[in-house]
Specification:
By secondary structure, the chain is an all-alpha fold. It is built from 15 helices and two strands. It has a two-stranded antiparallel sheet with strand order 1-2. Helix 7 packs across helix 8, helix 8 packs antiparallel against helix 15 and helix 9 packs across helix 15. The longest helix has 27 residues. The structure holds a DNA duplex (21 and 21 nucleotides).
Length: about 375
DNA sequence: AATACCTACAACCGCCTTTCG
DNA sequence: TCGAAAGGCGGTTGTAGGTAT
């Protein structure tokens, strides 16, 4: 098979940005004649362009049915959902977004959505929690613990300690998140900012568990985790989590607390009744984050068929997709038809070695 | 004010698949 | 059935505009 690259033989053909005059010629020609053979079109239309270039310009920019402008939230969510299902099949994804081209979606993914997922601790390729973030954490913590020997290291230990604190902060929030997502009903699921390291922990513990590194014990600081497992996929049996219990709390916002004090509170919370913890209350004491905190699992997307592959994990801020009426996606595609939408959707408690999670927290406590 | 750097997006490149004589 | 042409796709690059130094 094989063929010579388009226009390779014609070195004089123009490249680079299209001028308004060229656009006009192309639009007028296609308006009158249709595009026909793209290879012959440039000559017929009076353009010194490669046919391929003409096709791209038309399909990606000049086509009358192209929707210009920024992507809506619904479109954004739909892209993430579709990418989780289809991967980099931009043309397939584009067919579900009326007026959007594959190129436009691809660019938007690379410049916006990919970074957004990364910032939420989600691997944009697998749509699962990132596992790479924890790789350097032991070294980070070890370095932070060397504070007394700071003069021996050519490192900015203050910066390292800050990073370690930030890591702890996110780990602890993530732990809460997992427990909350397992114990709290979807409508009032925990709203916690910052899931990066949590997702990493989950990934790391999953990996460690599968490798037999971590123990099988499912006791977490005195809490029998098997009790939590009974709620998997069945939120009807959950005790209510009322807003009253949230608003009546007068404790300081967790987001304003130091990692250490956070840890103390979490320890006491785990030993007691997690459901009564204000940190787990929706819209509670300043923890609500419109950007990051809407990823609680819903009952609908937790009840996946056992025969179905595990749903991919996608951005946490798309829960509207699961609660609103079908979004504006083209071709009748609605968010409700797409896979689970939470960062932790599809994660079964049985698959999470909570002992491993806790062990990592112990490492931090030992600091 | 000049320069360097960053970001977003349009456009290109090369490979693969499909179509057609 | 074969092979060339054409179309399609995904990855990458180039460029323009904005921002920081």
């Amino acid at each position: 098979m094989g063929r010579s690259p388009c226009c390779e033989q014609d070195a004089d053909v123009k490249k680079g940005p299209w001028t308004p005059e060229e656009d006009k010629l192309l639009v007028e020609y296609i308006g009158k004649n249709g595009h026909g053979s793209w290879r012959r079109l440039p000559k017929l239309a009076g353009l010194n362009r490669c046919g391929k270039s003409c096709r791209l310009r038309w399909t990606n920019y000049l086509r009358p049915d192209i929707k210009r402008g920024g992507f809506s939230d619904d479109e954004e969510r739909l892209i993430i959902h579709l990418h989780a299902t289809l991967g980099n099949k931009w043309s397939s994804i584009a067919t579900k977004l009326k007026g959007r081209t594959d190129n436009e979606i691809k660019n938007y993914w690379n410049t916006h959505l990919r970074k957004k997922l990364l910032s939420q601790g989600i691997d944009p390729v697998t749509h699962r929690p990132r596992t790479d973030l924890l790789a350097g954490l032991p070294n980070l913590l070890a370095a932070a613990n060397l504070g007394g020997a700071a003069h021996q290291l050519p490192l900015d230990l203050n910066a390292i300690k800050l990073q370690a604190d930030a890591a702890k902060f996110q780990i602890l929030q993530g732990l809460l998140r997992v427990l909350a997502s397992t114990t709290a009903p979807p409508p009032t699921a925990a709203v916690l900012p910052g899931t990066d390291l949590m997702t990493s922990i989950l990934g790391a513990t999953l990996a460690a568990n599968s490798a037999g590194i971590l123990g099988q014990q499912q006791q977490l600081a005195g809490v029998d985790l098997s009790r939590l497992g009974q709620y998997n996929g069945n939120y009807d049996n959950l005790p209510p989590l009322t807003n009253d219990s949230c608003t009546q709390q007068t404790q300081p916002a967790m987001s304003s607390m130091s990692p250490d004090s956070l840890l103390n509170r979490i320890s006491s919370g785990i030993s007691g009744d997690m459901l009564g913890s204000p940190e787990l209350c929706h819209g509670g004491d300043g923890l609500s984050s419109p950007e990051l905190g809407q990823g609680g699992p819903s009952a609908s997307n937790m009840t996946t068929s056992p025969m179905a592959p595990p749903p991919p994990m996608v951005a946490a801020d798309d829960h509207q997709c699961n609660t609103n009426t079908p979004s504006g996606g083209g071709d009748g595609m609605s968010c409700e038809q797409t896979p689970a939408s939470s960062t932790f959707d599809g994660l079964n408690l049985d698959d999470i070695d909570m002992e491993g999670c806790w062990a990592m927290t112990d490492i931090l406590l030992a600091e």
